[in-house]
Amino acid sequence: MMRNLQPSTAIRRLSPLIIVAALLTATGPTRAHDGFDFGGPAGHAPLGVMGDHVHRDGEWMFSYRYMRMHMDGNRSGSQRISEAEIVSPAGEGFVVAPVEMDTEMHMLGAMYAFSDRLTAMVMAPYVIKEMDHVTRMGQRFTTKSEGLGDVKLAALYQLHDLPGQSLHLNLALSTPTGAIDEEDDTPRCRMMGNCPAQLPYPMQLGSGTWDPSVGLTWRAAAGAWSGGGQFTATFRLGRNDHEYSMGERFDLTGWLARRLGTRTSVSLRLAGSEWTNYDGRDDELAVADSNFIPTAETDLRAGRRVDAGVGLNWLAGAGHRLALELLLPVYQSLDGPQLESDGMLVVGWQWAHE
């Protein structure tokens, strides 16, 4: 099993990804080109990148994103592990194994530029989760949770701005608006007569803590090409009301985009993430059999993943932009057994107005 990673360890382990992203963004030309406009179809990052640009003084932008992530099958380290191995007394020895999970998110966003350098941003997600399970006896069941997630407040501050290049600071605070006490019926609570029961950690809607994040975003463009990179680190301020905190998270991404005509652009992206195990434990999930289900174990939450993405941006006119991005995993190593990602689709709309 992967040990609980410290921030310095996580950053060190992300260093190969930093090199990859630097190479990716360096492949796009960085000299300014007459006529290039960061507001064109290639001027924005792929849709899955948040906080990628600042706005002009007094400009508003409103957005909607729909995100769907599918997870199917389990992994321990970089190896696949079957449900039979998870529930076998001769294997991992758990009573219940997760089989697959779908997460949907409807994200509303707004941005406002107080100056050419400072843009404020707010993002509010509505989250829907569904997980399928199988018990050692072969019984299958599904749990669901749904509601408001953690609302994020952010500030983007321009550090460097030259024709065809920009660098800004990303500062954000995720607020504990998402529930951490979601419940549903399970075979165990029906047998014990105390339904509904507290759901394990992945089925909760928020972190329950105030979570600051800091990052840098760089963009460059010339002619029909643009590219960029972003690094963000997310931390947790103490434990929540259920006496645990989620792990710290480190995200690095780099992208390259090409304009096709005046309204459309396509993009390629690499994204690397690393997250650590949880600290503490929710007593509501403590049962006599500590090996009941992997999703209730705080030391089985860490992991690393690299995704490759392809995206499309389309300018619809009058400040409207439509976009989509598909991300598929090319590498993942999980402190498992833990559900692995099979991919994520992001579809959205943005509207900028002065």
Can you walk through the features of this model?
It is a single chain. This protein has one domain: monomeric porin ompg (Porin, Beta Barrel). The chain has three helices and 17 strands. The protein has helices at 7-26, 83-87, 187-192, and strands spanning 60-77, 79-81, 96-113, 118-135, 140-148, 152-162, 165-174, 183-184, 197-198, 211-222, 225-234, 244-245, 249-260, 264-275, 279-280, 303-317, 320-353. The strands form three sheets. An eleven-stranded antiparallel beta barrel has the order 1-3-4-6-7-10-11-13-14-16-17. Strand 1 and strand 2 form a beta hairpin. The longest helix is centred in the N-terminal third of the chain and has 20 residues, at 7-26.
Secondary-structure topology with pairs:
Elements: H1 7-26, E1 60-77, E2 79-81, H2 83-87, E3 96-113, E4 118-135, E5 140-148, E6 152-162, E7 165-174, E8 183-184, H3 187-192, E9 197-198, E10 211-222, E11 225-234, E12 244-245, E13 249-260, E14 264-275, E15 279-280, E16 303-317, E17 320-353
Antiparallel strand pairs: 1-2, 1-3, 1-17, 3-4, 4-5, 4-6, 6-7, 7-10, 8-9, 10-11, 11-13, 12-15, 13-14, 14-16, 16-17
